[in-house]
Structure formats: C-alpha cells, structure tokens
Design goal:
11-stranded antiparallel sheet; 24 strands; 28% helix; elongated
Length: 500
C-alpha cells in the first residue's frame, strides 16, 4: 500500500511546529552512565557513546517511568509505508527521579500536542474487506500501535450489510471518543448514518469522531485525512489525529434521508464505479477504464437540475480556498450551518438539523430554478479531495467550509478532450481544463430524464435511480485529521494558478 501525499513526510511532526522554548537542563534527561535523552525541536534525540538517533515526536506513542527506569515506545519505520512498534529503556539515577517525572510529561506533551491521549476507540472490522485481509491487517498492523499508545479498545466484527448502522445507532457517545472502521469507505458511510439515527444525533456526531483504518478496495477517507492507505501509518495518524469538524450532506430521495460524507455522482463517474464491479480484478484501474470508455462513447445522461451556488467561478474558488488557509479558525467556530437557526438547533443537541431546502418531494426552494441539462456527461459533487489514489477530482475541498464542490462535464466533448481529461486527473490539472466546470454549492436537486434505469452513487454506494436533493450541513460530523483544517491532497493554492 502506498502513501499518497508525496509532499508530506509521514514521519515529520505536524502537531507542534513551534514548541515552547526550554533550557537545555529542562530538556535533557541523563540516563545510564553514558547516554542522554533530549527534547529537540521536532524529535527526541537519543545520544549514546557510540550511537545517536532522532525519533520524531509524531512517532512517539507512549513514555512511562517505573521506579528507576524510563521506557519509551514509538512507531519505527521498517519500510517506506510501514511502521512497527519499538522501544527504548534506560535506567535513571535516584537523584534525577523528580526531574524525570516532569521530563516524561513534557515528552508526552510534545508527542501529542493538540491530540487526545489514550483514546477510547470502538473498532468495527469488516471481515470481508480488502479481499478478506482486514482481520489480518488489524491484528498485525493496527492493534499493536493502538495498544502501545494505551488506547482503550472495544472490537466488533460486522456480520452483514447495514450492521454498522445498527451498531452506531446503539453506541453511547459518552463511552467512546472514536469509531474506527477497519474497512473501505462503505463502513464509515454506515457509521455516520447510524449516528444520524440517534435521538441525540447532533451531539453524537459532534462527540464521536469517525475514522477509517484502510482495509478495503476504496480507502478515500484515509487518503484524505491521513495521507496514506497503509494500515499501520493510518493507525499512527489516528493515535495522533486532531479532532476536525466535517461537513455532512443530507440526501433526500423518496421518503428517505441519508447522510453523505464523501461524494454523490450521476453520469460517467457513477456508472464507471458501480457498473464495473465485475472488473474488480483490475484494481483501481477499473475506474479509469470505465471513465475512458464512456467518455470516448460520448455518453450523455439527460436531467433537470437546480443548484444553490455559493462560489461560482474557478478564480473565486481559488480565492475562497486561499482565504480559508489563512484564517484557520478554531474547530468550535466551524460548527453549525450557514444560518443562525441551525446553530440554535445544535445547542439543543436533538436529532439531525432541519432541512433548510426541504426535501425532493417539496416545491423548489425560493430562488432555485430547474433547468434542463440534456448533454450532461458527469455530475460529481464531493466533500473530499481524493476519490482514490492519485485521483484528485476536488482540489478545492475543505473539511468544513459549508460547501460541496461540484464538477460538471458535458458528455459530447471531443475524444481528444476526453483523453486529456483522464490524464489531467492524475497530474492534478483536471481543475484547470477549460471544459470542466467547478463550483462550490450548498444544495441541489437533480431529476434524471429519458432513462428507465441507471446509476446514482452516494459515497460509492448504489442508490435507486430516481430524483434526489442534497444540502450540506456545516461541521455536522467529526473526524480525526493530521492538521485539523485541510486534506492531505494536492490543492488549488499552488503558486501561479489563477484559473478563471
């Protein structure tokens, strides 16, 4: 499994880039007869008479002091994308014991920063995930890291489709800090929807962070939040993860209301994903193959469409993203929707927030206009940047800006443009293609036309082929991420990018 954020070294501490200054005497612990442990800028420096090593604070899982011995456990890289538990032990002299107590606490402060220690984690394992390897990966790659970090674990294996919905609905949000899905992207979708069924849904979705331990064929959640689809690296990222509010989207279809955390699609992307299940042996390439075939065929998916646009042009989208990077408000300031009524609802911590735009069965919201889109090739709305490894469809997405990012593409573009579009996704130039329309929106209604059956994908799950409506709820959910405010993916803030 590969790390997907080449610009970010997973072993560099992102939590405390500017640690408090301490004197050399405070920062150093003399151990044994010829060794010392020093809290440096971003790592623990272990100095021995014949050897020196630096252990990044990010990799340190725990440290403790017995009567006269200090033990430090950490995640040691054993391959490019694999870490394994290792430890160092040193004796300390009795006169230094009081200093050692404060030194160990300072080390843990530096190691965890804003992240919570000793997380209480409900682990759900999909035994069928990752071609049946999820259980093996959990026991060999994940559980040892959680145990070394002194996490409190409650492990359960899902038995059938929808089981995670039932488990999450019955979960006590005061007992667990995290629900970890040892699976692909399907289980996090079920967990969010299970929490959304609780009578205190808003409170549960805020208190309990939903995370993914990448053990499936689709691991977009981990790629975006952890920058990796390696089970061991993802486990380390969750141990050190910072609580991050996440926008969730309500989908109404018929009399059903579903929560979406990742994406919604109709057209080429949905069909390329859901209609190529028989090609799973191709791995992630089946998705590329499916898109290419349909683009070359100039397939169109007629529909009627109404959209609530928040940011309408690419240049405005870029500026919106750059402003968000500069502001970085506290997580608490991200909670609530775009209106004050939704914020008032949250304070009462009852059910899901009310729907500002009503449902697909109601009349169009004020200000919305339904227009025909006869040559739709792709309608793709996303809340995370990466949909698969090296597949950045939404480089301007933010975890909690109160918007979905919408990509639309005509189905009758030239074959040359179609091929260039496929190549542009992997090179992070898809956003810049002139025939790609990119907007930030807060809601939409879509009504398929001239098709008896087809494919609608919500978070990679197939939904009935019928009209549906969507609206975003700012910061309704909670996840753990490396930074607390952006995704681990290429973005539109790169210098020189001024697309209009």
């Amino acid at each position: 499994m590969d790390t997907i954020s080449p610009d970010r070294d997973p072993f560099i501490d992102p939590i405390n880039p500017e640690p408090p200054q301490r004197s050399q005497e405070e920062s150093t612990l003399i151990v044994g007869r010829t060794a010392s442990l020093t809290l440096a800028t971003d790592s623990l420096v272990v100095l021995e008479s014949r050897n020196t090593q630096a252990i990044p604070f990010y990799n340190i899982l725990w440290a403790e002091l017995s009567d006269f011995e200090v033990t430090i456990q950490y995640a040691k890289p054993t391959a490019k994308n694999v870490v394994r538990i290792s430890s160092i032990n040193y004796a300390i002299e009795k006169p230094t014991h009081p200093h050692a107590i404060s030194w160990v606490e300072n080390l843990l402060d530096r190691a965890y920063g804003k992240s919570q220690r000793k997380k209480r984690i409900k682990v759900l394992i999909n035994p069928f995930g990752g071609k049946g390897k999820a259980q093996k990966w959990y026991l060999g790659d994940i559980e040892p890291i959680f145990a070394a970090a002194r996490c409190k674990l409650d492990v359960e294996r899902t038995q059938y489709r929808g089981h995670a919905v039932e488990i999450a609905e019955q979960l006590d949000p005061d007992v667990f800090d995290v629900v970890a899905a040892c699976s692909g992207d399907g289980l996090p979708h079920e967990i969010f929807n299970g929490l959304g069924k609780k009578s205190d849904a808003r409170r549960a979705l805020e208190k309990v962070a939903v995370v993914q331990l990448p053990c499936g064929t689709g691991n977009a959640m981990s790629l975006n939040l952890n920058g990796t689809d390696s089970p061991s690296l993802a486990a380390l990222c969750i141990v050190k993860g910072i609580r991050t509010p996440l926008d969730l989207t309500s989908i109404t279809q018929g009399n059903r209301r579903t929560l979406s955390f990742l994406s919604q699609s109709i057209g080429i992307v949905a069909e390329s994903d859901l209609a190529t299940e028989h090609l799973r042996w191709l791995g992630s390439q089946r998705f590329t193959y499916g898109i290419l075939v349909r683009l070359l065929r100039k397939t169109v998916y007629p529909c009627d469409l109404a959209i609530e646009v928040e940011v309408g042009t690419k240049s405005e989208v870029i500026e919106h993203y750059r402003r968000a990077l500069k502001s970085q408000p506290l997580p608490e300031q991200h909670r609530g929707s775009l209106d004050s009524q939704d914020s008032d609802d949250r304070l009462h911590a009852t059910g899901l927030p009310s729907l500002r735009f009503q449902t697909v069965n109601d009349k169009l919201p004020d200000g919305w206009t339904l227009f025909p889109y006869d040559k739709l090739g792709n309608f793709y709305s996303g809340n995370m940047a990466l949909m698969a490894a090296d597949t950045t469809f939404f480089p301007a997405t933010l975890p909690n800006d109160g918007c979905m990012d919408l990509v639309t593409l005509d189905g009758d573009i030239s074959r040359i443009a179609a091929i260039r579009s496929i190549l542009a996704v992997e090179s992070n130039k898809f956003f810049d293609m002139p025939h790609v329309k990119y907007q930030k929106i807060s809601g939409y209604r879509i009504i398929p036309r001239n098709q008896k059956d087809g494919y609608i994908s919500i978070d990679g799950e197939r939904m009935p082929f019928e009209p549906f409506q969507a609206e975003v709820h700012r910061g309704l959910g909670t996840v753990l991420s490396r930074t607390g405010h952006v995704y681990e993916a290429p973005n539109v803030a790169a210098k020189g990018r001024e697309s209009a």
